[in-house]
Request: fold
Amino acid sequence: MNSLLRSLTRLVNVSWALISAKIFPILLAEAALVWSVFLRVFFFRSFPDPFPTPDTWSYLSGAYGLLEKGQFDLFAMRTPGLPLLVWLVLATSRSFAVLTVVHGVLTLLSAVAIGYVVRAFGGPWRWPAALAVSFVVLNPHLLYWEHFVMTEGSFQAFFVFALGAIALTLLRPTAAWAGIAGFLLAVAVLIRPQGQFLIPLMLIAFAWAIRRLGRRRFLTILGAAIAGPVILLGGWSARNARVNYFFGLSNVTPLVNLGITARWIDLDSPLLAEDKALIADSIRRYRSMPDNVNWVQYSAEGPATILNRKYGSDERRRDEVYNTLAREAALKNPGAVIGRGLATIRKLVTDEVHHPEGFQRTALWDGNWVDIAKKLPVDQHRAALNETRFPLDERERVFEEDIAPLLEWEDFFIRISFVTTLFALFALPLLSGPRRIATALAAFSVILVIFTAGFFSESAERYLSVIHGAAALAGALALTGLIERFFPVRNTKLRTLRLPPE
Reply:
């Protein structure tokens, strides 16, 4: 019996040593970072160029306008963040393949930033930070969307950078940190306006955290935080007012509003009767179809395209009509519009990820370059055209053996992000001070990302790519807080259990 007890004691001591020692979580994070780099090398060898989508050309128009004419000929529905990143990559490297590398580096840096923030809030416990870093860098959902010429590869990273800077400002309230947070947040919004909700949340969090610091310091920190959004977002909006004759980040909002309300447009109302008569058959047809925002917005038979043909170059009047139709539909059918948003959210969070299976079907994404090449000279920047360096049979073998098995875990990682966010929310009453505010900010940002995607778009799992970093940050902050509250460690030296001598 005494021998069994000693063996059990020895096991407890070894386990405690593993948990308490600082070196093991550091090794875990470093191993995850190294392995994630190898995974990205494998994916790069299989698909060196990022994948384009039908929306990619509208981002590339700005990049190629700068490259070829020195003019930023950006599609009015797009913000400048991604086009400027693509332009910078092509101007310096002349290769889309480097954009894939840049997206991967941004993901790794965002994971390191999460670890840094968690350690800044934590005590002697390094495991939550190490787990958060590992979760992000090994996340197959992020790995997949890094390989697209879309906003997913950079928006997630800058969203995390902004959250991290906000958290550090809550911990160390200075004008410098607040200014950095505001700047990074503005960059994230210029990549994808979906993140605008974080601006008021940041200001509320700062105001609550520094309310007792004195009026002068209070105003200084808030002013520093808002400077970046005012200068960058306001400056871009002013540019649009001068170039595109509207003040705002983009003019996609009227089209979005029409897309989510088209089913409930009142064709019998006298308001805009001529326009309603023009799209009546299209609306009736849509009512017999499943929800499909893209059909409303972009199909040749859809109401948006029909109205666009009518108003031609008068985009201001076209957008007024879009907004008027959408406003009337929403006011008359608020329950239906809200129900549509909730149904989209439910589908977004419950559906499984469906990507093309196997190398040949995944390569269909790569085939989108053919259509884009008809509009823009992209082939001169494509590394995959050089098949002596990237032979197809080698690319296929690498993808099937190294990448495809990893992508099968995407659903699991998405569910872990949901669970981690819920854990952080339930832990909030047990936290205190800046950690509680930072955890709440990160957790609610995940929820708002999901809600903005559900209420203003269709159910596309790519919109979930941004939640993973924020979920990891929220969960790790909550975990450090709970550990410090219930298992305080005052002496960081190894503690062991001792038995009396025989």
Observations:
- Residues 2-248+354-486 form one domain.
- Confidence is low (pLDDT under 50) at residues 491-502.
- The CA atoms of residues 189 and 195 lie 5 Å apart.
